Structure formats: C-alpha cells, structure tokens
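Deviation from plan, reported transparently: zinc ion complex.
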Amino acid sequence: MCRKSMGKRILTDGTTLMWQSDCQKYTIRLSNTCFLKILEMAQAHSPNEVGTSLVGCYSDNGFEASVIDLAPLSLDSKGSRTSFYRGIAGLRNFFTKLRQTSSGKRYYVGEWHSHPGAPSFPSQTDDKNQLAIAKDTNTACPECILILIGHTLSNVDEIGVFVYSRKRGRIPLAPAHQSEDIADSRPPAVPMRN
Ligand SMILES: [Zn+2]
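Because the crystal trials were delayed, the predicted structure below was used instead.
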C-alpha cells in the first residue's frame, strides 16, 4: 500500500504509528488522535510554525515511549515562518494537574513543532533547545522526544522523530509503522521487538 502521503492515509488504515532507532533501542509510538491534532494545528497555523509539549509515558527501562496527547498551546508561544518559541504560560499547572489526575502515569515526554514548507529536520536552534531540556535536571526528561512536521512544496507532510538523550545526544528514529492486517481496532498485542 502506498504510504507516500503519510499524513492522511495512515490515519485511516489502522496503522500504529511507530518509530525506531537504528539500534532498535529507542521506540516511540504516537496515537492517531494525537497525530491528527498535530496535523490540524500545523495546518491551521501555516505558514507560521506552531508546536506544543507532548504528553505520554515511558516504559520502565525508559527506551520506549508512547505519545498520547498534546499539552495546550501556551498563549505566550510565538511562531513565525522560520522560528518557533514555545511559551510557558500555564504549562507548569497543566503538568502538575496531569500527574495528579493520572496518578503519575502521564507526564511530559518532549516537544513537537511544525516546519511549514521546510524539511522535518532539526535546526541548530532545535538541537540546542532540546539538548538543554534533556540536560535540565528539573525537567527530569533525560530522553526527550522531538517530533517535527515538515510540509514540503509537493504537499506531502513529512514527520521527523528524534530523541535527545542526556548521555547520547540526538538520535534519529525511522518509521516502523505496524499495519494491523486483522480488522481490529485494538492496539496490537504483539511485542514490538524480537
Ligand atoms: Zn524547528
């Protein structure tokens, strides 16, 4: 099946969105609902950049992450065509409440932002910001996710998924989407790794 127009098609064909590092150590899953929200926001703010923090959880070993929701767009965020400042207004409250209502099972796992008309690859500023977050002991997110939504002139949404590790620096992840061949909307019960 053609997966070139990733944006729309993947949402409708029961695929689990998943990315993995070359070493297969790092795995990131993204819920379709979350992906749809990201695409809608990116399109709504185009040609300016936009983004929010990511809500999710890690496996016990810290190498598998599920991204399940987006933090609200902070009102003090500022996006232009080539830059994005993710604001901080209300975020501390949001994550404090989230931890309480989820009994600590949902928390901050990283960031996403759009690159309208540009590749889904981190800029030097992106690298700097993400590494700063990974290294910030207050944030307590030593393996911090960055999802970039590029939107090229050929009208295809591109997704770039990266982990910024306090110890290992930037780690690119490649798509490892899993098709659910059986007509079943439940998430696959099969282990992702062998
Ligand atoms: Zn960027």
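The CA atoms of residues 112 and 147 lie 4 Å apart. We consider this an acceptable substitute for the interim report.
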